[in-house]
Structure formats: structure tokens, C-alpha cells
Amino acid sequence: MNYRQRVLAVDLGATSIRVAAVDLDTDRPVVEVLHRWRHAPVPDADGALRWDWDRIVAEVEVGLQAGLESGPVSSIGVDGWGVDYGYLDHSGELVDAPYAYRDARTEGWEETAGLIGTHELYRITGVQLMEINTIFQIAADGDERLARADKLMMLPDLLTHHLTGWVGVERSNLSTTGLMDADTGDWSDLLIEAVGVPRSLFPEPANAGTRVGEWNGIPVHLVGSHDTASAFLGAPSTGMGTVFVSTGSWVIVGVERDRPDNSQAARDANFSNEAGALGGIRFLKNVVGFWILEQCREAWGNPPIETLIAEAEGVDSDVPTFDASDRRFVSPDDMLAEVVAASGLAPDSPRAVVARSIIESIVEGVVTVVSEIEGTAGTKAGSLALVGGGARIPLLARLLEEKSGLEVVVGSPEATALGSAVVQGIALGRFDDLDEARHWLTPSDAAVESRGG
Length: 453
Fold this sequence. Notes:
This protein has helices spanning 53-69, 109-116, 118-125, 134-139, 143-148, 155-164, 171-174, 189-195, 227-233, 264-268, 291-299, 305-313, 335-343, 351-377, 394-404, 415-428, 434-440; strands spanning 6-12, 16-23, 30-38, 42-43, 49-50, 75-80, 85-88, 151-154, 169-170, 180-181, 186-187, 205-206, 211-215, 218-221, 242-247, 250-257, 272-275, 281-288, 383-388, 407-410, 447-450. The strands form 7 sheets. A 6-stranded mixed β-sheet has the order 17-18-16-15-19-20, sandwiched between helices. Strands 6-1-2-3-21 form a 5-stranded mixed β-sheet, sandwiched between helices. Strand 13 and strand 14 (218-221) form a beta hairpin. It has 2 domains: 6-227, Nucleotidyltransferase, domain 5, CATH 3.30.420; 235-411, ATPase, nucleotide binding domain (Nucleotidyltransferase, domain 5, 2-Layer Sandwich), CATH 3.30.420.40. By secondary structure, it is of the alpha/beta class. Residues 443-453 have low confidence and may be disordered. It is built from 17 helices and 21 strands.
């Protein structure tokens, strides 16, 4: 059959909004980035960190319009970062600008976790305990905000609502909230009651691949609305034993499994069991990733990231490292000072040395998680599939191979867009299943073109 299907993938990144086109009728996957807009949380009048939602929506629409003007479009899919959400009021309007997960309002999260019981939380959800989890953000919401709220929408689903009017929650993003029962794949009534908010706030879950409406006459399909769920689908798989390393503001390391593991060993290692976009479980852990380097880059006057990587590559002496998974790096007042203190570097250390220390610390964090996966799952890792922004950094791949002793298969920097395209392609009938789609995603064929934003 002659397919002429081109889809648009909207990716809400925590530092960059992207709209990309993927032509499903090619011999190899090509991602064309049509529009890109860098952004960050914005302090409100009270100093709280919020997302500039109106601008985010406007920039997405710029990208979608560029997609319509540059070729035929068969479908649109939206993904984005997890845990953050907005409230719709009874008229379907946004109550207020969504809070950013780096805001300090969840500092009392451990008290909330203690009231529920950390063992009980993990038994139900199988989710890594982190202060950014949605359950702890909801616990910090004030009565006035909640009084105006009718439905909670995760941010990618909130954008889908804007495009189509659909109200719901895609399951892979639901699984990031710390409010999903890992066994049922639905909201946990017990945890909702424990947080003390109405059950009616939480919309019905839906699966990736579902058609939920149209935008300008173009079908909109749910994809893995959590960007990591999409990235895993867009990563090259070498079969059993593949450990996926999705790199961005966070570095997420994990494997695909059939069922959740909420055992004591998994809880002690603080792993998350998140729903796969097309079924199964992503057993993974978050490591604070290139957010560290990006924040230091700002302190250095925003030199090109390529310059920093080249300088780090040129460091030929050993550098000290630090625990990149430490919570101290989630939202410090001065990231550069935090890195220098944690690594033991001198305050006047050259930025090349600091950048190299950051990269090597991220690598050590990844290798540690791989070892924990092997110990918890009882299986040997076979290879590392590297995708996301880190796929553009040969130094990262080389260090990962050296430190882990595993083959590193480099996939696409735009794996999230490819994963979105895979789900849309299955929904459109271009692929019969994930196995066929992954054959199309052979790593040696991965290609990325970009223009605009």
C-alpha cells in the first residue's frame, strides 16, 4: 500500500518547546524540527515559579501552523514532561498558570509521605519518591485554588484539551503522579482520599493511540504523553537487556518490563514503575541531568553548548565527580556554587574542568542505576540505548561505554518525536505494531533535520 502520511509531534520540554514533522512514508525516520522555543519557569507576584502557559500554547500553535504550511498532515500528537498539571474550572477554562515542579512549595513533602506511609505509597504506586511528584504538589495547593477547580489535567493533556476540547489523562503521564495504582492503571481512591481532595477532580484515563478530536480538521491522537514514554518508544532496542538512557534536563535510565515491581528491593533502590505508552512498564530512575550543565552555562554567560562540550572533551586530566542524583541539584539558588562545593573543585576552576566534572558525574549516575537495575531485576544489561540531547555528545557515549563496559547504541536526539510518530503511525495503520515500528527505527538509519526556532 502507498502511504503518504506525515505526522506532527508536539514535545513540551521543560527548557524547550518543539514541534516536529515526521514523514512515515520514508525508508528511514527523519525528524524535521519546524519550530523551537526556549523557555523557563517565570516567578509570579509572590515569587512562586509558574509556567508561562499562554506563551507555551501560542508557540505550539506557531509550530503547528508551520506544519500545515509545509506539507500534508495526517495526525497530531502531544507529549511533555510529567508531574506538572493545571486545573480547569467548571467552564473548562484554566484556573491559573500551572506551577513548575521546581517551585519550593513542596518542601514539606516528606510530612505528607509520612502521614500516608512511604511503604504504603510505594506498595500502591511503585513510584520513585521525589518532592516533585504530583501527589505532593496537590497537597500543597491552597483551598482557594482547589475551590475553583473542576478537573485536573496533566500539562500535555491540557494542551490536547486546548486543541480539541478533550478532557482526560493519558495513562503514561498518570503513572508519573504518585496517585496511580500500578496494578490497575487507574487513579488510587485511597491516595486521593489521603490527600484530601475530591475524587471528581481526576478525569478518566485513556490509552495512547486513542483519537480524541481534531485541530483545524487534523485528527489528534493521544501518544505517550509523558515525554519519557515517547522517548523509550523512539529509542533503538537491541532486544532483551536493552537499558534505555533518555537524556535531557533529567537523565532517565530504565528498562521495559511486563509488570510493575514494587518489591522491597525496588523500593530501597527508589525505582519508578511507569506505564509504557503501548503497554508494559518502564522500570526506571531519574538522575538530575543536563539541567546542571544548563544552569552553569547561564552563570558563564550562555556560551554555545557545543563550545562547552568541546572544552570538556579537551580536558586530559582526572576530574572529581559528585552524586548527580542528589536532591541538592533540583533547584539550587546557585548551581555553579553547588557543583563546585559538591565536587570539591576550587571556586576558580576553569569552566572546562567544571563541565567535564558534570558530564562524568552524570555518567557515573547512569552506570550506578544500570548496576541497580541488574541487582534488582536479576538480569544482566546487554546494551545502552542513548537518546535525547546527549545523543549529540560523542564524549558522553564514549564515557558511558568505558565506565559501563556495555555497548552504547546511539539513537536520535529527537527520539521523543519519533516515539510520538510511532504511536500515531500505529493509530493510522502505517505500522501493525511496535515491533514493526522499531524495525523502521534501526539506529544506523536514524536521521534528524532541523530548521526554524
